[in-house]
Amino acid sequence: MTTTLKYKYQLYRHLQASVPQIYAEAKKVADEIGIPPNLRGKFGLTGAISGCPAPLRRDIAEATEKGGKEVIPLAKLVDELREIVKDVYGDEWEPVPTSTCEAALWLCFDSLMTPPNLGRGDNYRARYICPYEKHMHHQGAYGRPFPPKYKDIYADRGTTAGELGFYGKRQNNFDTVIVPLVGAQYPVHGIKAHPVPLLTEVDPEASIEQMALAAEVHAPFLTGFASLGYDTPGYGYGVKDEDGAPLLMKRIGELAHEYNVPYLIDNAWGIPFVGTDPRKVNADVITYAMDKASGAATSGLVIGREDVMTHIRRAMGMHGDRWGTTASYGKAAFVTFDPGKEALLSQVQTLRVLRDKPEILTKPVDDLERIVNDEFDKIHPNIKKGLKISKSYNSQAVEVNYEGTWKEGGLGLPIFAIEDMYAGSNILQSGLAQMGVIPTIAYDANVYISPGLGTTDDDGQIIEENMRFAVGALVRLMEITARYAGMI
User: Fold this and answer.
1) Which domains does the chain have, with CATH numbers?
2) Checking DSSP bridges between strand 52-53 and strand 48-49, what pairing results, if any?
3) Which Gene3D superfamilies match (predicted)?
4) Measured between alpha carbons, how far is residue 233 from residues 26, 203, 391 in Å?
């Protein structure tokens, strides 16, 4: 096998042809490691996937049910969120709840960076700068890509193409300037081949120089910067300052402020207070999917500096009535992003816990890190020597990155592109389903594992046996895949 698989395309062609055998072996492994039949299909490697969110923690479910039976003006709940955020970040910070994190991103881009629609004369063009990183179809998809070699970068992502797919998010007269990161690699991998961002070796200082050059070139059109808010090496944010702030984010924020434009952070898979601190990275606004790592009901949240949040609160109808009040919950441009009462109640309880008892969320991550290290100690040494395992309180996750399996030349552990996920050809995801394990993010040589989906109790704490079943299944599937790739 190793002599016939000389090139990457041959590797992925062979994997595609071997999918039935890989699936059959994966099903047998589920029996070998003893995953109970009644658990299969009901647990997984993360509770932070939008399509299959984790059950609500007991305290969140109880607070939501209790408040749902009471008469509470929704503006009062928003004010409760404001008080909690100000308790932690200070009086100059404001929150705005939304229906989803994607709604929060849309709200921020349209409120802060896109050209105005009203007024005489032709619309002017606007551009924002985004590093070439993972998940670009979220934070990088609100403008038309520049330079043109990236014009089709999002074509096959999501369930729908064209104007009804990710392309439909593009704002009026708005462009995205995409800047590759220094030290990153963007090789082509996958059964559905596509460039994959490999980011463990990103040099933040050299990368910000490239972003500064882009800012200088596009200065007449520049209206903002955007990036992810994750804090792990696999996402390019492993280098941190003495306060633990990812250095690349901090430098982007400084650059944005040199140009007097906002810096927007998409921290969908992140949590407030315990996670990435917008104050330390010079962010103006940071967005969250509150149903992912935080554990609230499906909803989004924006936290930002009060000068820009004034506009965002107005756009949501939450800034106050026209005749002069301090709060409102009315109609405005983005009333379609209204999160509703139950989501607001769950956010209030979630932020209270993050403010007052953060150990409820940090302890499961510590326990998960121990389990992941234990289980990956058993993996074949040819794979193990190329792994980098990192813990993230921000994302309530443990990251397993395997870029290093390709560093010594030859073929490493197969890397699947994000297009493989959408096409159903990512074996590290589809193979887990054959074992009865609901998969997690496992593309670009990066796997995020987090608690919550049948692996935690009603109080959000790890059920060790279930978590070991899930992580053990991933370890064995990686070995099966590596064997068919000729790596072991």
Assistant:
1) 8-56+359-484 (3.90.1150), 58-356 (3.40.640.10)
2) antiparallel
3) Type I PLP-dependent aspartate aminotransferase-like (Major domain)
4) 29, 11, 10
Do residues 169 and 136 lie in contact, with contact meaning Cβ atoms separated by under 8 Å? no
Residue 142, token pair as written in the block:
């609100």
Q: Which residues contact 423 (CB under 8 A, 6 or more apart)?
A: 156, 191, 192
Name 145's bridge partners. 176
Give the number of other Cβ atoms within 10 Å of residue 242's Cβ: 5
What are the C-alpha distances in Å from 62 to residues 342, 344, 345, 379, 406?
Answer: 11, 13, 10, 41, 48
Dist. CA 447–CA 431, nearest whole Å: 14
Query: Which residues contact residue 436 at a Cβ distance below 8 angstroms, ignoring those fewer than 6 apart?
Result: 30, 35, 37, 39, 40, 41, 43
Instruction: Pull the structure tokens for residue 338.
Output: 């209204």
Q: Among residues 231, 198, 184, which one has the least CA distance to residue 405?
A: 198
Assigned token pair, 24? 């059959």
Residues 140/226, Cβ–Cβ less than 8 Å: yes
Q: Tokens 């104050």 appear where?
A: 279
Reduced to 3 states (helix: H, G, I; strand: E, B; else coil), residue 29 is helix
Report how far residue 33's alpha carbon sits from residue 16's, in angstroms, rounded to the nearest whole number. Answer: 26
Tokens for 140? 């990088």
Distance between CA atoms of 142 and 156, rounded to whole angstroms?
Answer: 16
CA distance 320 to 315: 11
DSSP-derived letter for residue 226 is E
In order along the chain (488 residues), what is the average pLDDT of each group of 10 residues? Answer: 77 97 97 96 93 94 98 98 98 98 98 93 94 97 97 89 91 97 98 97 98 98 98 98 96 98 98 97 98 96 98 96 93 96 98 98 98 98 97 98 92 96 96 96 97 97 98 98 94
The sheet carrying 397-401 orders its strands as 388-392, 397-401, 446-449, 442-443
What pairs with residue 305 in β-bridges?
A: 93
Beta strands 446-449 and 397-401 are antiparallel
